[in-house]
């Protein structure tokens, strides 16, 4: 059991030191980020992994979210002291002294009682930070929701603009048909008029020739 808990605590420390994103360590207590969420300056959402439940509870100087780092702020976050927890051995105990990966011990009943009594407080520290990160995540989701709502409004405007553009185009086409001549139709009418004019001229010419022919026969 002693070997198992030592290995598990080593794994906790390994996760704290190896968890990275974008080349930055997330759990060593140094990560701070500020994300631009608006169109103007200072419209940002920021968060820090250096503290838990306020700047007074800093894990940055004790290795971040390693076993020692979490233990260093356990009293500040939970309000508990290891020596005052039920079931712990008598004497002066502290989170910082009993929760060190290289020396944590459950090989005696007193040590095991101390570890069991303090573990809930360490879990509470992690839960507290997860709650803080959840609140930050909700702020991002709220921002995304507002952007989605604005996007929906923008889509409605764009749809209205496209509809108005179609109406304008149709009105211009109708106005053009009313005002502008149909060249094919007008050309056909002109040709028809020319043919009628030419036919009338021919008939008139022939009508004028018949009396002259009759006079020539009589003469």
Polypeptide structure, described:
The structure is a single chain. Helices cover 64% and strands 6% of the residues. Helix 2 packs across helix 4. The protein has a domain of 48 residues. It is mainly α.
The stretches of 5 or more residues where confidence is low (pLDDT under 50) are none
Assembly type: single chain
Percent of residues in helical segments? 55-70%
Roughly how many Å is the radius of gyration?
46 Å
**SS summary, helix count:** 5
The count of strands amounts to: 4
Strand content: 5-15%
Helix/strand order, N-terminal first: HEEEEHHHH
- Could you tell me how far the N terminus lies from the C terminus, measured between alpha carbons in angstroms? 153 Å
- The residue-averaged pLDDT reads 85
What structural class results from the helix and strand content? mainly alpha
Described by the principal axes of the CA atoms, the overall outline is: rod-shaped
Q: What kind of sheet is the major sheet?
A: 2 strands, antiparallel
Strand arrangement in the largest pleated sheet:
1-2
Give a summary of the structure in a few sentences.
This protein is 64% helix and 6% strand.
């Amino acid at each position: 059991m002693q070997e198992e808990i030592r290995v598990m605590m080593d794994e906790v420390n390994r996760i704290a030191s190896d968890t990275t994103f974008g080349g930055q360590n997330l759990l060593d207590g140094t990560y701070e980020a500020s994300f631009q969420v608006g169109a103007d300056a200072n419209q940002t959402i920021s968060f820090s992994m250096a503290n838990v439940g306020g700047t007074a509870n800093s894990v940055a100087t004790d290795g971040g979210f390693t076993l020692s780092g979490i233990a260093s702020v356990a009293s500040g976050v939970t309000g508990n002291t290891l020596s005052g927890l039920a079931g712990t051995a008598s004497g002066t105990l502290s989170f910082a002294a009993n929760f060190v990966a290289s020396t944590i011990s459950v090989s005696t009943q007193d040590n095991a009682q101390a570890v069991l009594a303090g573990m809930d407080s360490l879990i509470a520290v992690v839960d507290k930070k997860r709650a803080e990160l959840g609140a930050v995540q909700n702020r991002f989701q709220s921002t995304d929701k507002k952007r989605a709502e604005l996007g929906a409004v923008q889509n409605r405007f764009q749809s209205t603009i496209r509809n108005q553009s179609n109406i304008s185009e149709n009105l211009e086409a109708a106005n053009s048909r009313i005002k502008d001549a149909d060249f094919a139709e007008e050309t056909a009418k002109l040709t028809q008029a020319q043919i009628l004019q030419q036919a009338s001229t021919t008939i008139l010419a022939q009508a004028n020739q018949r009396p002259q022919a009759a006079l020539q026969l009589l003469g």
